[in-house]
Amino acid sequence: MRFLRPTHPLLLLLLFCNTTTKIGAQNSNLTLNADPKFEQLLTEKRKSNPNLSYNDRYKIQIFNGISENAKKTLSEFKQEYKNLDGTIIFNTPNYKVWVGNFRTRMEAESYLVDIKKRYKNVFLIKPNK
What we know:
This protein is an alpha+beta fold.
């Protein structure tokens, strides 16, 4: 077992120091080649919608329950109201059907009156609040 024990610790230390100085971190220079059209598209998007926040919109909830009924309700709604978009949101343990994407409360309430005639338990929500 004598051959497993280092005979010259100083030689081993020098070998270790020599190899660790050769190992270095990655080079920090990074070159990114982006298409100039991409930046132009982002600039145009920012100009066209500077104050538009999609999180600050009103929606109307028309259903709250199980998945199959939520899909059925959304399908019926889309057939009747073709100009309004709708989506199904899962919030444990229920599925919710939210329709519309209204900028103002007045616009949402005008649709709410009409939708209440067709669906029960309908109310106005502002999802981010």
